[in-house]
Amino acid sequence: MSHTLTDEQRALIESNRQQALEKRKLVEAQQVQTTLTNSAGTAEPDKPKKPKKLPATKMSSNYYEYNLATMRDTKGGFLEEEPKHDSPTKKRRVINVDDIAYNPDPEECPLCAECGSLDLDMIYLKIFKVYVCKSCIEAVPDKYSLLTKTEAKDDYLLTDSELRDRALFPVWEKPNPHKSTWNNMLLYLRMHLEKFAIEKWGSLENLDKEFERRVDEKRARKEKKYNQLRRRTRVEEWEKKRREKLKLQAEHEHEFENVADTSDGEATEQKCIVCGIVVEVEELF
């Protein structure tokens, strides 16, 4: 079998080789041109192409992807943990004070009611509308200390309905420090409570008298209850000793017999032959 190429086959091979060489030279020329352009800074480097996003469908628009590694089991469902901020400034709550406009003149700016300082406490100013600095809050606790709802009721003898009146007592609500699921802790300003207590009771001396009166009533009720309990205990103890002495059962049915007749003959005394209790019986005709 002969493997000799014909003239037409040789011509076709030569033509394909020439075309391949021309394409190779063209590619090399383009690479050289690109290198020179990038080195000279006349053209920007090639940017990676962003993958084309697929159009959203009904199923993909309602689908949410969660990272199960960041989920925690609350025994009532899985919740995603909040990111922890290392910087304390991110946890700080910003309070906007809208009641006082900025005034560049220091003489017309609001000052502390105690020392005249410009460094006012923003929380007291925003919530309680009180002009006081932080140093005076610690220095004058008789006016600017904060009391809980229970302390306000015990110290100034106020009711729940009075403490719920926000026109009288503005409050500072804070998360409960004992348990996060409990109701928020309400903090009242002492000077507001003391002012209302003076109007309610007339003076602080009358408040002290009312407090002492309630303490005495509470002590009297406690003593009365204690005396009743002690008397009942003594009666039960006496009954127990009597039953043990007479060797009686804890419960029995009385069996009475006539003991003596009264002078008029209408009533008769009967005595139980088991426990010895005596009763008076009146006959009705």
From TrEMBL:
Gene Ontology molecular function: damaged DNA binding
Location relative to the cell: Nucleus
Keyword field contains Nucleus: yes
SUPFAM superfamilies: Putative DNA-binding domain
Residue stretches in coiled coil: 212-255
Domain XPA C-terminal: from-to ranges: 143-191
Protein keywords: Coiled coil, Nucleus, Zinc
A biological-process GO annotation: nucleotide-excision repair, DNA damage recognition
One GO CC annotation: nucleotide-excision repair factor 1 complex
Superkingdom field: Eukaryota
Pfam families: XPA_C
Stretches the record annotates as Disordered: 32-58
Ranges annotated as biased composition (Polar residues): 32-41
Protein name: DNA repair protein rad14
Species annotation: Coemansia asiatica
Gene symbol of the encoding locus: RAD14
